[in-house]
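Try this one yourself first.
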């Protein structure tokens, strides 16, 4: 690997060990075996490097969500169905133990965002990618074929559910909502709307 990749991998390890606010440029250099100047040369700043490392970590977690990629053996229910909804959420929930550190880091960034305005700006752009990345698991439409309205509605809906679900699973896994409960709740909301 070159310095750019070494820095990125070192930054990922630092984020998982120390979090965003406590990671220093010197920590990254020590972990990556590079030098301070290489951070500025390859990424512009320590914060830009840490954001890129965080996005890379989150992308890896997102890849583990899809039932087609994970240990769940692939989605079997038709796209857009309640059964598919439940399969995808079950797969996401299965990924929580392995990705717990990354989710804790996510919430650190959410809670400390006011202290890091430049980082917040960079991460806001990454949220759009997250919204477009989650939708295909549910509706089966390839990401590159999604229109903006779908990403802005369905993507925001799934992202909101994801964030709320992760809060529950990080706080108290024993009482957190499971995929079947989430699906039954949605079914009841849909039926209530249709009957109302």
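Now uncover the answer:
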């Amino acid at each position: 690997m070159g310095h750019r990749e070494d820095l990125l991998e070192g930054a990922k390890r630092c984020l998982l060990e120390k979090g965003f606010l406590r990671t220093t440029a010197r920590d990254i250099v020590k972990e990556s075996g590079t030098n301070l100047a290489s951070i500025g040369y390859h990424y512009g700043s320590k914060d830009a490097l840490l954001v890129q490392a965080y996005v890379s970590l989150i992308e890896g977690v997102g890849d583990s969500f899809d039932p087609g990629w994970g240990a769940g053996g692939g989605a079997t229910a038709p796209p857009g169905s309640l059964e598919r909804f439940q399969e995808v959420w079950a797969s996401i929930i299965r990924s929580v133990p392995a990705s717990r550190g990354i989710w804790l880091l996510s919430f650190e960034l959410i809670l400390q965002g006011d202290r890091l305005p430049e980082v917040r700006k960079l991460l806001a752009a990454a949220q759009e990618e997250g919204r477009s990345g989650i939708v295909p698991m549910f509706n089966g439409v390839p990401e590159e074929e999604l229109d903006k309205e779908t990403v802005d509605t369905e993507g925001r809906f799934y992202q909101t559910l994801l964030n709320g679900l992760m809060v529950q699973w990080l706080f108290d896994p024993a009482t957190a909502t499971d995929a079947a409960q989430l699906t039954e709740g949605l079914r009841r909301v849909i039926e209530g709307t249709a009957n109302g």
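Discussion: Residues 2 and 20 are 23 Å apart (CA to CA). Confidence is low (pLDDT under 50) at residues 69-73.
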